[in-house]
Design brief:
It is a single chain. The chain is 0% helix and 51% strand. The chain is an all-beta fold. The strands form 2 sheets. Strands 1, 2, 5, 8, 9 and 10 form a 6-stranded mixed β-sheet that branches. Strands 4-3-6-7 form a 4-stranded antiparallel β-sheet, with no helix packed on it.
């Protein structure tokens, strides 16, 4: 299993297509980018992390939200993977002056 994300623009009540997202892994020497992509027409990004790069550890999703929110031009979400064999879904609910995230299914 691996990682997926979904960006929803709550001010419009619809998915956010075209949002650049990168995934970084915390290594002894700092953060290492292991995947990058852009959300599809449904605001989703899936099957984008190389299987050999997905293992237990601390990760950071970085959403380039500048085109959608002048107040939050970038959103970073840190999370820890204890069971890399399980699928992880980390969505972002974005509004002009706030955001929310959670572990989805």
């Amino acid at each position: 299993m691996t990682l997926s994300t979904h960006v929803l623009d709550t001010s419009l009540g619809e998915p956010a297509p075209g949002v650049p997202v990168r995934l970084e892994w915390q290594h002894d020497d700092g953060w290492v980018e292991i995947a990058a992509g852009t959300t599809d027409s449904d605001g989703r990004l899936r099957d984008w992390v190389p299987a050999d790069m997905w293992h237990a550890g601390t990760y950071r999703l970085v959403f380039d939200t500048a085109a959608r929110s002048a107040f939050f031009p970038e959103v970073s979400v840190l999370f820890f993977v204890a069971e890399p064999s399980r699928h992880h879904h980390v969505p972002l609910l974005l509004s002009p002056y706030g955001y929310t995230t959670y572990r989805g299914s």
